[in-house]
Write a structure and sequence with these properties.
By secondary structure, this protein is an alpha/beta fold. The chain is built from 8 helices and 20 strands. The structure holds zinc ion (2 copies).
């Protein structure tokens, strides 16, 4: 209990510190990457879990395989234990040499496949799915109502995943996982985006406090065309995330966003604000998966000046490639 409270305070303090630094010195970031930051040569992102499916199984969840200059990372693991494993097989994708997995946050629709992936893939390669990257807050106790049972699946999952031979690596700050690829760590909430589900609380010594998903983090890849941001559920807010990505990886256009933006129930006003900010950030491609919402993808397409080729509802197996753009597959083309 005490440890949980300490973690919450540390997160709050570090996020506040970034906010204070940003407000005292506009345009100057404490985490600005050097202008010579590494640019990746090739990038290919394949969606392995989302609602729409041309091939494989659709579900309320998210996962994507990120392939960068010969490195392969799994970003989130879908909802059902078997979905990502089976979808990868259906798509002819071998995940057995993927050693590193990023969990964007604790929700079951992003973490449900982790244990099955480790157990199954480790049969062929002992290092498969062995390093799990998370941010502080991912193991905090949650409740849907006072006196209710534990609402954070990561608490039961952690010892099982560790017993299966994997380790969790916590990132309090941005980290360059491979050259040109950064994890954001916890994202400062500069704008009042409230893209998280209501009604869930974090358990602290002082009682229940609303769960704002303090651990929510994204992946940022710097290419010669600009930054590509991969989000899980986007609970930190896509604009907060994109702006922080630019602080971390260099003030380049954020030319592509891939993943869930949690805008499915957003108001017209919120969608217009978000689309304008994405346009201003240089957005050229949106592969809107999972909780982005179908209507939200169409609205952002229209409001940010994109087309049916460049703003697409993601399907299982759909992809974004730094050279070829989006391959939507058949149904969402
Ligand atoms: Zn979520
Ligand atoms: Zn989600």
């Amino acid at each position: 209990m005490r440890l949980s409270v300490l973690v919450v305070r540390v997160i709050t303090a570090s996020v506040l510190a970034v906010n204070v630094a940003a407000s005292q010195a506009p345009g100057v970031s404490a985490t600005a990457a050097p202008p010579t930051a590494h640019e990746v040569k090739s990038l290919h992102i394949t969606v392995l879990s989302t609602m729409l499916a041309d091939a494989g199984i659709g579900e309320w969840g998210f996962a994507a395989l990120v392939e960068v200059d010969g490195h392969r990372l799994l970003f989130d693991t879908g909802a059902r234990p078997e979905t990502v494993l089976q979808n990868a097989r259906d798509l002819g994708i071998d995940l057995s040499n993927v050693t590193d997995v990023v969990l964007s946050h604790h929700h079951a629709d992003h973490t449900g496949g982790l244990l099955t992936l480790r157990r199954e893939l480790a049969k062929g390669n002992a290092t498969a799915v062995s390093r799990i990257h998370v941010a502080p807050g991912v193991f905090l106790s949650r409740r849907r109502a006072k006196g209710d049972q534990e609402a954070n699946p990561m608490i039961a999952l952690k010892p099982l995943v560790e017993a299966a031979g994997s380790i969790f690596i916590e990132h309090r700050e941005p980290a360059e996982l491979v050259p040109g690829v950064w994890l954001t760590g916890p994202v400062p909430r500069r704008h009042a985006e409230r893209n998280w589900p209501a009604g869930v609380s974090i358990v602290t010594a002082a009682g229940l406090v609303p769960d704002t998903l303090p651990e929510d983090m994204s992946l940022v890849i710097r290419t010669e065309k600009g930054l590509v941001v991969v989000t899980g559920c986007g609970h930190a807010g896509v604009i907060n995330t994109v702006e922080y990505a630019q602080d971390i990886a260099g003030h380049q256009p954020a030319y592509a966003v891939v993943g869930g933006l949690h805008l499915f129930a957003a108001t017209d006003e919120t969608l217009a604000w978000t689309a304008q900010r994405l346009h201003d950030a240089g957005l050229q491609y949106l592969l809107g998966a999972h909780c982005t919402g179908i209507e939200a993808v169409f609205r952002i397409r229209q409001l940010a000046g994109l087309s049916r080729r460049s703003a697409v509802v993601a399907a299982v197996g759909s992809s974004f490639d730094s050279a070829r753009g989006i391959d939507p597959l058949a149904l969402a083309q």
